[in-house]
Amino acid sequence: MSFFENFKELIKNPIKYKSFLFSKLPMALVAGLKVVSLEQEGAVVEVYYKWLNKNPFRSIYFAVLSMAAELSTGVLCFGNIYGKTPGVSMLITGLKASFHKKAVGRIRFTCNDGLKIKQAIDEAYATGEGQVLECTSKGFNENNEVVAEFIFIWSIKLKK
Predict the structure, then answer these.
(1) Closest CA to 70 of 41, 90, 50
(2) Number of independent structural domains in the chain
(3) What's 44's domain CATH number?
(4) Tens digit of pLDDT for each residue in 103-124?
C-alpha cells in the first residue's frame, strides 16, 4: 500500500490522526490543522479560526496560515519519498507569501503541484543531483475567496 493510501486511511480516523500529529507535528495539532484530502496530484489542509490560533486583529495568525499552507505542499513531498532508498532530504529554502483577505472561519489550503513534485523527486533519483522546486498553496475562505497565497521553495537532495 502506498503512502497516499495509508495516509488517507489515517486521516479518516481522528484518534490515529491526532496521535500522528502529536508525535510528528505537535504544533499542527495545537493549531488545529487537518489534512482533508490527499491524492498524488494534490492536497488540501484546513484550519479554523479559534482562540488558540488567533491574532489581536480577530483573524488567524499568519504563522498558522503558513503552517497549513506548508503542510499542503510538504505532505506531497513526503508522500513521494516515503519508503525509498536512499532517503531524501527535504528543506524549505525560501518562502513568498501574500495576504488578500482577513482569515476567519474555515480556511482551506490547496496545493495542486503533486505531479511536479513527483517529477522533481524522480529526477533527483535519476541524476543523483539535488532539485529545487516552487510549490504553490492557496488558501480559500468559506466563500471560495482567496485569503492567502504561499509559494514554498523546496530543496530535494538524496541522502548519502
Answers:
(1) 90
(2) 1
(3) 3.10.129.10
(4) 999 999 999 999 999 999 999 9
